[in-house]
């Protein structure tokens, strides 16, 4: 089976081996390994060599609020947002983080700092399951998890997390709690043109981005926050100082190089334009999934309204990085049903929803994705 997982999508080869019946397909995590093939064919232009004497200091730019941010990364991040048009960068401070996961915690720290009691953190269900775990694991005195934003009605300050497009269900989102004492954190991990139409540049107080789901380099652990308020940017930087004294320079160099390659591909190369290539992979995967769902008749997936993408000049509906699949009929536990077919997914209950739902990664390698849709289309109730 290592032969099979190394081969590119060759379903006739898969057909001949009955051992694929026994192969476990793990689509639980959103590991973006799908992107490996793009970067493989991009070759050496993104190879980074760092000598022993380089990048030794803790500091990158002491004049910047975020003193550990590499200027080259800052430059490439701004350039990419300009090209894609997905976020306003003028008048923003950039804070780098070890993934957007660290920045999310930095934002909570910065927003709740100085409060007299733990501030409520809310997000509308179904929400990104990791938020809750991260908020709860330290038993912080600064903030506490208060669950579904739709049912939050305390007349107190709160922090609302808005993920758009949303993980797990893929819908575009706006704040749900409609009160004046709210502080908002916008998580834009998936606001990139391979997933969803870029309708306007996002313009909010705290916006989180990450290379993980943009370029597929989750292992690099690089994210960035665009922050309007200087004091908040300072406190976020302080949090990262206290938790890790900055962010790996090696990773920042590599991220700058990758992000630059993406921008270059958008400006110079039509047939290897990163977002074009990725858009087509996602589009094919979603149509394959919808076919399989139709054939099987056991499941349903959300429908996304088409919108005009100002980046690609194309009208399309969101094609999310996760499929939010519902078992129709009388199967109550979709996760264990699929596990019996050796497909590992994440149950809706982790996202504050019914176990009739599961979240399925759409970003795995071709061979796994092919086998997954093949198995799904053969399922009957
Ligand atoms: N936010 C959302 C909504 C995500 O889905 C993820 C990745 N699963 C993250 C943040 C974390 O990304 P990072 O790898 O940058 O920490």
Outline:
This is Alliinase C-terminal domain-containing protein. The protein has twelve helices and 15 strands.
Name given to the CATH architecture of the largest domain:
3-Layer(aba) Sandwich
Mean pLDDT: 93
CATH topology of the largest domain: Aspartate Aminotransferase, domain 2
Structural class: alpha/beta
Pfam family, one: Alliinase_C
Cofactor: pyridoxal 5'-phosphate
GO biological process, one term: amino acid metabolic process
Protein name: Alliinase C-terminal domain-containing protein
Walk me through this protein's architecture.
The chain has 381 residues and is of the alpha/beta class. It folds into two domains: 144 residues, Aspartate Aminotransferase, domain 1 (Alpha-Beta Complex), CATH 3.90.1150; 198 residues, Aspartate Aminotransferase, domain 2 (3-Layer(aba) Sandwich), CATH 3.40.640.10. The strands form four sheets. The protein has a seven-stranded mixed beta sheet. It has a four-stranded antiparallel beta sheet with strand order 9-12-15-14, with helices on one face. Strands 1-13 form a two-stranded parallel ribbon. Helix 6 links the parallel strand 3 and strand 4. The longest helix is centred in the C-terminal third of the chain and has 23 residues. The chain starts with a helix and ends with a helix. 4'-deoxy-4'-aminopyridoxal-5'-phosphate binds next to helix 5.
Layout of strands and helices, then pairs:
Blueprint lengths: L1 H5 L4 H6 L8 E2 L9 H7 L28 H14 L8 E6 H14 L6 E5 L5 H9 L5 E6 L9 E6 L18 E6 L18 E5 H4 L7 E6 L2 H15 L4 H20 L5 H23 L2 E2 L6 E3 L4 E3 L5 E6 L6 H7 L2 E2 L1 E2 L9 E5 L4 H12 L4
Parallel strand pairs: 1-13, 3-4, 3-5, 5-6, 6-7
Antiparallel strand pairs: 2-8, 7-8, 9-12, 10-11, 12-15, 14-15
Helix pairs in contact: 4-9, 5-8, 10-12
4'-deoxy-4'-aminopyridoxal-5'-phosphate (PMP) binds next to helix 5.
Organism: Carnegiea gigantea
InterPro entries: Alliinase_C, Alliinase_N_sf, Ethylene_sulfur-biosynth, PyrdxlP-dep_Trfase, PyrdxlP-dep_Trfase_major, PyrdxlP-dep_Trfase_small
Family: Belongs to the alliinase family.
